[in-house]
Amino acid sequence: MAKIVFIEHNGTQRDVEAGVGSTVMQAALDNLVPGIVGDCGGACSCATCHTYVDAAWLAKLPPMSEEEKMLLEGSLSVEENSRLCCQIRITGELDGLVLRTPASQF
């Protein structure tokens, strides 16, 4: 298990436990984290799981695929640390990962 820290746009922090091998998006949905919609179920086709990765964790994530980059281009409020959490698979190295949710996915 790994702890994933979600910080909502209003500052509310939610710490969730997630299984290694799962995705961060699935952990958010399983724990009813507000701000993560996941309309496509993790198929990297909707961008409703947009998050901001804390700077300390960016280098530990795999690089973005071209599909993820294209979807993020059409998202609201994209920043340099934006990622789709359906594309982040949980590993032991990501225990403590900190993500912030945007004010809106739409």
TrEMBL record:
Residues 2-105 form the 2Fe-2S ferredoxin-type domain. Coiled coil: none annotated. One of its GO terms (biological process) is P450-containing electron transport chain. It comes from the Bacteria. Signal peptide: none annotated. The keyword Metal-binding applies. GO terms for molecular function: 2 iron, 2 sulfur cluster binding; electron transfer activity; metal ion binding. Keywords: 2Fe-2S, Iron, Iron-sulfur, Metal-binding. The keyword Phosphoprotein does not apply. CDD domains: fer2 (cd00207). InterPro entries: 2Fe-2S_ferredoxin-like_sf (IPR036010), 2Fe-2S_ferredoxin-type (IPR001041), Adrenodoxin-like (IPR001055), Adrenodoxin_Fe-S_BS (IPR018298), Beta-grasp_dom_sf (IPR012675). PROSITE patterns: 2FE2S_FER_2 (PS51085), ADX (PS00814). Belongs to the adrenodoxin/putidaredoxin family. This is (2Fe-2S)-binding protein. The lineage of its organism: Bacteria, Pseudomonadati, Pseudomonadota, Gammaproteobacteria, Nevskiales.
